[in-house]
Design goal:
The chain is mainly alpha-helical. It has one domain. Helix content is 76%, strand content 0%. It has four helices and no strands.
Length: 82
């Protein structure tokens, strides 16, 4: 995986961890982080950009910083052709 993408995904993980604190979404946010890691480190990359964009919609009202980080990750993956 390219280094800028790794940096972006590290930022995404940090945003997820920050959003977990004090919310009822902690389990869902951990699932999202695990799913992104799994799909990028395996061959199951199909549909990951669409899935991330759906997560942006889901979290933009309650966790705007997280939604922005997810959106940046989706844009970066899309630019890579995933």
């Amino acid at each position: 995986m390219q280094e800028p993408l790794q940096d972006l995904l590290a930022d995404l993980r940090e945003a997820i961890e920050a959003a977990e604190a004090g919310t009822g979404d902690a389990d869902e946010l951990r699932r999202l982080a695990s799913e992104v890691d799994r799909r990028l480190n395996e061959t199951d990359e199909e549909g990951i950009v669409d899935d991330l964009r759906n997560e942006v919609t889901r979290f933009e009202a309650t966790h705007p910083t997280l939604a922005a980080a997810i959106g940046r990750a989706a844009d970066a993956l899309s630019a890579l052709g995933l």
